[in-house]
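Reproducibility note. Readers wishing to regenerate the assembly model reported in the main text can use the exact inputs given here. Chain order matters: entities are listed in the order in which they were concatenated for prediction.
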Amino acid sequence: MLADIDYFYAQVEERDNPLLKGKPVIVCVFSGRTEDSGVVATANYEARKYGVKSGMPIALAKKKLLKADAKFIPMRHDYYKTVSEKVMAVLRDKADAFEQVGIDEAYLDVSLKINGFDDAERLAGMIKEEVMSKERLTLSIGIGPNKVIAKMASDLSKPNGIKAIRPEDVVNVIHPLPVDRLPGVGKKTYDRMVEAGIATVGDLAHFDRAKLVNLFGISLGNYFHNAANGVDDDLVHEKGEQESISRIVTLKEDTNELEGVMESIRPLCEEVADKASKRGLLFRSIGIIAITKDLGIRTRSKSLHVATNDKVILTKVVDELFSKYLEESKVKLRRAGVLVSNFEKKGTGQDVLTRYF
DNA sequence: CTCTGCCTTAC
DNA sequence: CCAGGTAGGCAGAG
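Running the prediction on these inputs yields the following structure tokens for the assembly.
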């Protein structure tokens, strides 16, 4: 199963404020640069009727909703996180294997506790009821013989639905769909596929596997071929440790000056170092993220010889990386960020003083 | 094989 | 008109 909380952030806001019911609700990330700068995180279905979508500039969403009584609400990420944890606890409890994906989705392997797809549909209904009674939230649940099919089934069931795709129906259900409904096919890949004459999932299924590998690489090429044929042997497994920690901000104004950037960046170095320390992690790679005024993304990074979590070292390396970057680049920066990765668990890595004893 | 930089997806 | 955080793959250079 793939269980997905419907229009999550906006649904939580509706739940907590009945006055919002029936109105377009848009949960926004305001960047603080101007009154309306920022993007839409989630919109409820009322707002979607007007063409409002996740990732859209808030200013554009407001334009589309000029004549509607729409509510624009600032995102409360920490709160949604705690709500998510409660829902996930219910879901995890129902599965033999569990894999959370993002804040509002999870795969549940329930093969061992059900007997056939009818039974799985009953279980999905019980899960939805339990989440409704405990958290007052609706879910959509897709059921299939593997993860890709379960995911596609959940998309077809939204909102507040249950849909099972049985093995014997897989091909008939997915082959007519446009190829970008296959998970992993985004805008860029879709354009390339259309260029190659692939418009539907069925087209993709019948496309030569070797050619797909040529076009998209060995890993993606084989994934596309198998998935389009309803085949996916990816296991449902609990995610491992986090592999990177990053923070990024929008600058007050576009700039090309080191001090202007570092002013905004230094607090982020602190936060990142603190977060690593809190988790008992030492990082060996330090990176910067630069987003130019035309929204292009540049990154620079550097690996250290010895892992650290020292914010002074972090800040100094970040300063050097930005200094070097700003010398090379001409375009002004709109946003800037810090990333650390290549973690070692504190205490298990090499200890310079004691290692040789 | 490692490091680096970039691309792409997705929530 | 434009956030923020994380993952994973690929390619080129060393």
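We highlight two features of this model. Residues 28-31, 33, 36-41, 55-60, 62-63, 75, 77, 102, 217-220, 239, 242-250, 295, 334-335, 337, 339 of chain A lie near DNA strand C (CB under 10 Å from a C1'). The domain at 178-228 of chain A is CATH 1.10.150.20 (DNA polymerase; domain 1).
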